Amino acid sequence: MDELGLASSPSLLVVISGPSGVGKDAVLSEMKRRGLPFSYVVTVTTRPRRPGEQDGVDYYFVSESEFQRMARQGELIEWAKVYGNYYGVPRRQIEEALRGGNDTILKVDVQGAASIKEIFPDAVFIFLLPPSLAELANRLLQRQSLPGDELDLRLAKAKEELRKIPLFDYAVVSRKDELDVAVSEILSIITAEKCRIRRWKIQL
Predict the structure, then answer these.
(1) How many of the other CB atoms lie within 10 Å of CB of 131?
(2) Is the model's pLDDT at 201 over the cut of 80?
(3) What letter does residue 165 receive in the DSSP assignment?
(4) Model-level pTM?
(5) Residue 139 φ then ψ, to 5°
(6) Cα(131)–Cα(172) distance, rounded to whole angstroms?
(7) CATH code of 140's domain
(8) Measured at the alpha carbon of residue 156, what is the angle toward residues 153 and 161, in degrees to the nearest 5?
(9) How far apart are CA 23 and CA 18, in angstroms?
(10) Counted domains in the chain
């Protein structure tokens, strides 16, 4: 508190979501590479680790039995089964980061974002958009591990998720080879939210 009776705005929970293949992991990797001062919530998953991924950095990779144990004991604030694999958000990571005064970044699927909004209504929700569905299909194809029927399933799911945009506060287009633009827009959103009057405690 300073002599004007202004207290700095509280820490933010920033939720980044979007359809599979839109580039959520790439955007977060670029934010981390820049050394930006955020706490990043690491999702727990049962899906196999992809080449280059690190346990505890990209995800916490666990067995299905361990995941079910965490869910039963309330260690996950939200979880869902997506394309045959389980994904969950560790409760303790979010609570400790926010209590510590850290702006916190959380990546979830669109279904998970809706659940998180019920628990943290003051969080900032950002939807990552592909430039087009054709571009999204190309990105998914580049993974080379998706059979044709699963590709069709993910594209159909993406169309369904795009209809959920009104649940979010902001939309950022994730263009190939333009990660810096998407990250800059996200940082601008965070800066603007930190300046919103409703987030400040003012005593006059």
Answers:
(1) 13
(2) no
(3) G
(4) 0.86
(5) -65, -40
(6) 10
(7) 3.40.50.300
(8) 120
(9) 8
(10) 1
